[in-house]
Amino acid sequence: MLTATSNFSGSISSEHDKVPKKKPRLALKDYTDDFFGSGKKLTPEKREELILKYTPLIKYVAGRLAMRLPPHISPDDLVSSGVIGLMDAIEKFDPAKKIRFKTYAEFRIRGAILDELRSLDWVPRSVRKKSAELEK
Predict the structure, then answer these.
(1) Does a structural domain hold residue 132?
(2) Which of 51, 41, 56 is nearest to 87 (CA)?
(3) Which residue has the higher pLDDT, 39 or 51?
(4) N or C: which end of the chain has fewer CB within 10 A?
(5) Residue 114 falls inside a structural domain
(6) Which helix H or strand E contains 64, and what residues bound it?
(7) Looking at residue 73, what DSSP letter applies?
């Protein structure tokens, strides 16, 4: 007959504590309060400073999208579309909505890049969707 014995001493080994935690994909400080806290319209100098601070976010979003695109599409074109999206985000951001600017900007940057890609494609989205269904 088998019996179960326990050697549990009451404490769990902290081996899992030694595993390094994942770093955030893009450690970018949130500048929402620094730039939009006063509620005043941004000066051109502040706008330029904000664009420079969020350039890594543009490159990150463009790089993520570029992985799924054909090689003939230039990453620089994606970045330039992303800059337009960031400028649009700066213009339309509303700090009263209590969201971080980084979150809002990321959606606007991605949207601007996707809009540019769609404008380059002569085939409507509905036709692409039907084509993909037929290939399956």
Answers:
(1) no
(2) 51
(3) 51
(4) N
(5) yes
(6) helix 55-66
(7) S
